[in-house]
Amino acid sequence: MKLTGYGISDTGRVKQVNQDSLFYGISPNGDAGIFAVADGVGGLQFGEVASAKATENIEKWWQEFLVSGIGSDSEKTVDSLSALIFKINGEIYSFNETNQTKSATTLSLIIIYGDSYYIAHVGDSRVYAFVDEEKKIYQLTTDHSTDIVKERDGRKYIQSALTDGLGHRKSIKCDLSFGPLNDSVSAFLVCSDGIYKKQSDEVIAQIISAGAEEKQICENLIEGAKQAGESDNITAAFFRPDYHK
User: Fold this and answer.
1) What is the pLDDT of residues 27-42, one digit of tens each?
2) Residue ranges per domain, the chain?
3) What CATH class does 2-242 carry?
4) Contacts of 225 (CB under 8 A, 6+ apart)
5) Tens-digit pLDDT profile for residues 135-150
6) Are 115 and 178 in contact (CB under 8 A)?
7) pTM more than 0.90
């Protein structure tokens, strides 16, 4: 198996600061890869600091992971990944205490190693699988969010609110999962909510189905979100496993 992939983070049409952060890496021989998106919580201060701390830690961990040799042991990989997530949470939480501020970030990542996948997830960024034969995407993560009713100018509306994020408190809920790769899955997408808030699953699948290179697909997803009226930061990482190499 060999991986090919790409990722882009875009500030968007309105905001001046990009609170999203992205890290992706593929091993030299292409048989392992990591794709991670962190979305700093916009309603809090220093969201960009929180998301950057997440991806900086992930990049360092990934380099160590590749040379450690633990990737062939699923239990050790999950334990190491769990320790990483709680380390990131602790760093952001300590930053908040030291600076008397509040910051937090979502984090969604997927690791492909050999014929297995590993997912770590906190918040409402997402990991999707794309099945080319069906021209459909399937969400592999569950949003840590809830709908709340708000009122503006006498009109009520529903807004999604995070229920968990890294750095928000000492204890967090982190979803960890792993399993064998399914060769019916032809691609994966990791993204911040800027991708999917204004674009339906069907639209996202159509963009992916166009068959362009990974970079072009990321650019098309981001441009599609902008044209649909998205005002948030927008980040997408897209990759394909070639099961025959």
Assistant:
1) 999 999 999 999 999 7
2) 2-242
3) alpha beta
4) 194, 195, 197, 198, 199, 234
5) 999 999 999 988 776 6
6) no
7) yes
